[in-house]
Write the structure tokens for this entry.
Amino acid sequence: MEKTLPKIEIIEKYCKGCHICVEFCPKDVLEMKGFYASVKNLEACIKCMQCELRCPDFAIKVITE
Amino acid sequence: MAFDYDKWIRPGKLPHIWCPGCGHGIVMKGLIRAMDSLNLKKEETAVVSGIGCASRLPGYIDCCTLHTAHGRAAAFATGVKMAKPEMNVILVGGDGDGTAIGGNHFIHACRRNINMTYIIMNNYIYGMTGGQFSPCTPTGHKASTTPYGNPDPGFDIAKLAIGAGATFVARGTAFHANQIDKLIAEAIQHKGFSVVEILDDCPTTYGRRNKYKSVIEMMNRLKEVAVPVKAAEKMTAEQLQGKILTGVLYKDETKPEYTAEYAKVIERAQAAK
């Protein structure tokens, strides 16, 4: 079965650069790019939704099919 | 699929005022998921708060909201509930607002067992006013007004609530984000006064004074100290030293609820005419 990749949407207007999403991602998908979080390695994403769940600023949406 | 928080948020209100890494946003998400899972109607739900960082929460939520005087959330909420007993009344606030300035209102709302839910975000400090120590600051910890360590012992909010007569008491943490919505949903469904204490982090005024290097370190501390109630049953007193119990700590469904009792008083008074 082919793995489908989600779409990780980061709303930079809301992101405050707290690092929570980057640190608690079990697969190291995200990184800090300057002040904001950004996607580094989307292929590794397992859609666990931890980043979306933990982001205190409503800045991440993991959109799956 | 991503949870749609937008339907419960007032348009144009985000980004919120909380500092980077503050757990209040995580608790607000939990509250929104809980309200959504219970299919609460916006016009039948009131979120009431006092003053403080955590008390800014109702400003962002799209339902009936009240932002009231410092510590008086319980008093205003009691008014809402008595006037409209069919409403779901949810109180939010911090530890200073709930247990110091509003301590009296808090214990008496517990005593009455009126059907409301109080979510206390305990970050151990007064964040908004500049990091003064609160009744929940642990002994020895530093705040702007106790630079050499706090000599006072802190409150245990859950035990205080149980002692004062609340009939549902639970505790969660901002780290255990998955659990928050379940605890809040159970508290809202409970008939009686329910208290949900959420241990939170304040990186700006508490963390940096108490040698926490980052938000992540504060979150990991919450992970380390929290022990679920069921796991604690199998642990010795020694192992539980310094740990904090999480989950549903107390539930009593036998105590009469205040609005129902008050309706009976009205009935008796009208029959006596």
